[in-house]
Amino acid sequence: MMLVRRFLDRLAMSEPSQRAEIVRALVRVYLEVPLDAENRSAAATALLAVLDDPAPRVRRAMAEALASSPDAPRPLIRGLAEDLPDISTIVLRRSPLLSEVELVDYAGGGCERKRVAIASRDDVGVGLAAALIEVSGPEACLALLANPRAAITASSLGRLVERHGSSARIREALLARPELPATLRQRLIDGLAQVLADLVIARDWLSPQQANRVIADARDRAVVDLAASCRDTHRRRLIEMLAVEGRLTATLMIRALATGHRGFVEDALSHLARTPVSRVVALMQDNGAGFCALYRKSGLAPAALPVIRAMIEVLRDQTDDGTELGRARMGRTMLERVLTALGHDSFTPAEIDEFAALLWRLATDAAREEARMQSGGYFQAA
After folding, report:
1. How many other CB atoms sit within 10 Å of the CB of residue 333?
2. Per-residue three-class SS string for 270-295
3. I want to staple 119 with a disulfide (CB 3.0 to 4.6 A). Which of 93, 143, 200, 319 is the partner?
4. How confident is the model over 25-48, as a mean pLDDT?
5. Is the full-model pTM beyond 0.85?
6. CA–CA dist 139, 112 (Å, integer)
């Protein structure tokens, strides 16, 4: 114990900056010099005594020197992990000696800075990530999302959306993840749409009725665009979620057809009518009495049936060249033809009045989108 006594006496006679250097030197000896059991134990005891040093810079120096080592004394690492945030965060972020159970405990009982450090570790497993999302604020969750080595499950991402989906930075970070499930992506888009609606109404830019209509249109468009970018399995999960929320509406089907996303309509009708997709495809292609029966079975608004049949009829004869401009041009042409067809005597006003305004808005949107693409975005440079 003479080594410990001499070390502590020297520390007692030194300034904090000198003590920090002495501690760094002792840590190097402990980690790098072969010591017998007695001297190694004495060095560990001396370092443990430094936990009581009144100067944070001394304890911080010890944390920086020991944090990454798998050979550091475990009680010392735990002591540093429970120190002030400026010190503990070094160890919580870097030490390989802290188990997942210990880290979960520190995350639950610590401050946000400590949780940020834990979320930034190289070895954030599924359980630790889930625990962090459950107890952390936005800052630690952002650190977790920014950590490419963090194992975050879809269910944990869903919990994150529930807890912090209203945070703009969290939404941005989540939406930037290519593996984010379509259902969660849609929930984030819905949340953003509601924020925008509240802002527009609060600023009195639009009446509540106008704002809600604009936001509803934007949400439906986002749904269709998102579905178009999904693989079949993810698209069907999105459709299941929309059905549960009562959002698989005739209006949504019309918008999907107007933008050429027939696959979304086929999957939606399959789900609603509990009919195999292959059967739905055949009935849509025929577009006769069988499709009418399928549509009625789906429970969608009866007044939209003539509109949807007219769109399917036009869509059968329409093709695009695979480009965005070709899709926009096809949508505009189809809507113009549908609007012309719906003006014939074969359709009663009662059947089309409910959706006429929507069709005109879609036609206008398609024409404007085509114009933007052809002009190269006239106002983009303004």
Report:
1. 16
2. HHHHCCCHHHHHHHHHHCCHHHHHHH
3. 143
4. 86
5. no
6. 7
User: CA 325 to CA 304: how far, in whole Å?
Assistant: 28
Determine the pLDDT at residue 328: 63
Chain segment 80-94, per-residue pLDDT in tens: 999 999 999 999 999
- What token pair was written down for 370? 């085509």
Which of 91, 112, 143 is a domain's end point?
A: 91
Residue type, 380: Q
Domain-embedded: residue 24: yes
121 closest CA partner among 99, 105, 137: 99
Q: What is the mean pLDDT of residues 88-103?
A: 95
Question: What's the domain range around 289?
Answer: 249-368
Is residue 331 domain-resident?
yes
For residue 230, what pLDDT is reported?
77
Which of 98, 102, 38 lies closest to 66 in space, CA to CA?
A: 98
What is the per-residue DSSP string for 346-361? TS-HHHHHHHHHHHHH
Domain endpoint, select from 91, 119, 139: 91
Give the pLDDT confidence score for residue 208 in this predicted structure: 79
Q: What is the per-residue pLDDT for 61? A: 95
Q: Are 86 and 56 in contact (CB under 8 A)?
A: yes
Q: What are the C-alpha distances in Å from 316 to residues 235, 293, 322, 337?
A: 23, 20, 16, 12
Domain count, the chain: 2
In a domain, 355, yes or no: yes
Structure tokens at 149: 């080595």
Per-position DSSP letters for 28-60, written without gaps between them: HHHHHS---HHHHHHHHHHHHHGGG-S-HHHHH
pLDDT at 343: 62
